[in-house]
Amino acid sequence: MLFQKTSTRTSLSFQSGINQMGGYSVVMDWDSSNFSLSPIRYEARYASRNCDVIMARLKKHADLLELARYSTVPVINGCCDKYHPCQALADLMTIYEVSGTFSGLCLAYVGVHNNVANSLVAGCMTLGIKLLLVTPILNSPSWDEELMQTAYRSGYVEKVDQLSPIHPGFEIEEELIESERSIIYQQAENRMHVQKALLLHLLR
Prior knowledge:
Layout: E1 2-3, H1 9-20, E2 28-29, H2 40-47, E3 54-57, H3 61-70, E4 75-79, H4 85-99, E5 106-110, H5 115-127, E6 130-134, H6 145-154, E7 157-160, H7 174-177, H8 184-203
Parallel strand pairs: 1-2, 1-3, 3-4, 5-6, 6-7
Helix pairs in contact: 1-8, 2-3, 4-5, 4-8, 5-6
GO molecular function: amino acid binding; ornithine carbamoyltransferase activity
Protein name: Ornithine carbamoyltransferase
Family: Belongs to the aspartate/ornithine carbamoyltransferase superfamily.
């Protein structure tokens, strides 16, 4: 597990899931390894000779692509500037647990258009879920023009351009977090379970 960014949920959920499956994980910090000094292709070739899967949480999607290109084992995107696929998989798993279906659903994403939004766009298109994006704030490094054009053409994704009022820095009220109907922690736990399924799929 290679970390260039700080992490609690990604690190803990992957380590716990790997341990539950009978494996073990090696955690490497980008800045305290030769990844920070050598070209990625050299380090990727070496690292992949020592493990079965590489999970990487990197700052730049381009670096993740280079890592995957030169690795001889599967590389899981644990988060980058463009995508956060494990988060989206956990979201979609939780939606299925609660709803029992993906058919006829309309999911609303409210917040900054970022890596999570991109991953939900890709996931919802794949599963045929209608997605309404309410994203008045754009995180420019996350923008994926090709993905969004494909999404708009698919008919599964729509965008609402303005949400008012905007309260920067506040994602959810505490009373909603503590509500008996809240599924926040269920979704957080599902990160581990969906990542175990992903690992099993990649190792078969």
